[in-house]
């Protein structure tokens, strides 16, 4: 659905208008397309009439995430790693645009496998943007709000990134993501590769797993089982939660938006909720008796692992470019996940709920 555009934000008034990365319908490649966000993006693009080629090594994704579109005539799936230069080169064949989402996510994985997380995220992006530049295929690259580190909120795209000290593991993830952005823009400068970079904030919704530290699905599962809802730290840290359905619509809209190429965009919600408030909301909406328990960071993460106090995006640039921003109510998102969790776990009448 077409949306009217708002005037550019003040700091972008002198930006030179550029054509969109592509125009629907397209032949799109989605790396990491069997993952949580990737699979929703695949459904969004197919719904817009695009042909979609998913490339995923299934290291964190799951082919079942594509069950709803498994038989779609315009869907093709390749199980392979885009960190392989030959795979990266092949995915550019017959492609009009690449949505690069492949990577390793989750603070739990970062705490236990920091080297693998940093190397995978950097090398996969390095291979994809190099192959895309050689084939002259535009790229929408998903990055992370982690690159802002302990910067001033709300985070604005043009502000310097502050990923942190090299002695801290979390900063390594942020630097790998930031370096991926610089590599993409380096190719844009030297080869003319059309690039849009999207910094995703806390994205939540169906199919998200709590296995790697994702807070909302973990809380929902704990509440439905009647287990203690475990809040790491004091719970006063705030996050902004956006529904995955709105996030992938924003990705697709940015790829087709005039003036987006060559720029960074925050995509997420701007409504802050503390982790403690989130735990209370989940317990209430799940009608659960689960206690909420604070767990010191030192019992969960390595010594020195830090959690940013606030992470809030500025969405001025996003609204100015596509005319809207994610706005789904967190309570409605929690209700959706509680209903899905009950169906999956079979706990609708379990003793863990009243």
Explain what this protein looks like in three dimensions:
It is a single chain. With 354 residues, the protein is α/β, with parallel strands linked by helices. It has two domains: 25-203 and 244-267, 3-Layer(aba) Sandwich (Rossmann fold), CATH 3.40.50.720; 215-236 and 271-311 and 328-345, UDP-galactose 4-epimerase, domain 1 (Alpha-Beta Complex). The chain is 36% helix and 16% strand. It contains ten helices and twelve strands. The chain has helices at residues 36-47, 85-91, 107-112, 114-135, 169-191, 215-225, 244-255, 275-285, 316-322, 330-345, and strands spanning 27-31, 51-56, 75-79, 97-100, 139-144, 195-200, 202-204, 229-232, 238-243, 263-267, 272-274, 292-295. α5 links the parallel β5 and β6 (195-200). α1 packs across α7 (244-255). The longest helix has 23 residues, at 169-191. It is globular and about 55 Å long.
């Amino acid at each position: 659905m077409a949306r009217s555009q708002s005037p550019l934000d003040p700091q972008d008034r002198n930006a030179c208008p550029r054509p969109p990365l592509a125009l629907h319908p397209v032949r799109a490649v989605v790396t990491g397309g069997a993952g949580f966000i990737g699979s929703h993006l695949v459904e969004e693009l197919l719904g817009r009439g695009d042909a979609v080629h998913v490339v995923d090594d299934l290291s964190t994704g799951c082919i079942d995430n594509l069950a709803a579109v498994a038989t779609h005539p315009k869907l093709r799936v390749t199980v392979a790693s885009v960190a392989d230069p030959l795979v990266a080169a092949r995915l550019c064949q017959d492609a009009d645009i690449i949505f690069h989402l492949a990577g390793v996510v989750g603070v739990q994985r970062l705490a236990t496998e920091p080297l693998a997380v940093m190397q995978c995220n950097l090398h996969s992006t390095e291979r994809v943007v190099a192959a895309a530049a050689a084939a002259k295929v535009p790229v929408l690259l998903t990055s992370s709000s982690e690159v802002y580190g302990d910067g001033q909120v709300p985070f604005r795209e043009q502000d310097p990134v502050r990923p942190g000290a090299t002695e801290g593991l979390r900063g390594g993830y942020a630097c790998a993501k930031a370096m991926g952005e610089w590599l993409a823009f380096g190719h844009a400068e030297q080869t003319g590769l059309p690039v849009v970079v999207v910094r995703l904030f806390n994205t939540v919704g169906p199919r998200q797993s709590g296995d790697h530290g994702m807070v909302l699905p973990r809380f929902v599962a704990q509440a439905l089982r009647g287990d203690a809802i475990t809040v790491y730290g004091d719970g006063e840290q705030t996050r902004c939660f956006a529904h995955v359905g709105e996030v992938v619509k924003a990705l697709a809209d940015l790829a087709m938006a005039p003036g987006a190429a060559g720029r960074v965009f925050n995509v997420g919600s701007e409504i802050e909720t503390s982790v403690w408030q989130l735990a209370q909301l989940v317990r209430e909406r799940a009608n659960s008796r689960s206690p909420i328990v604070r767990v010191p960071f030192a019992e969960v993460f390595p010594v020195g692992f830090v959690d940013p106090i606030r992470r809030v995006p500025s969405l001025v640039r996003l609204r100015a470019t596509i005319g809207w921003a994610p706005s789904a109510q967190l309570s409605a998102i929690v209700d959706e996940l509680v209903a899905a969790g009950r169906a999956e776990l079979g706990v609708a009448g379990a003793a863990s709920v009243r």
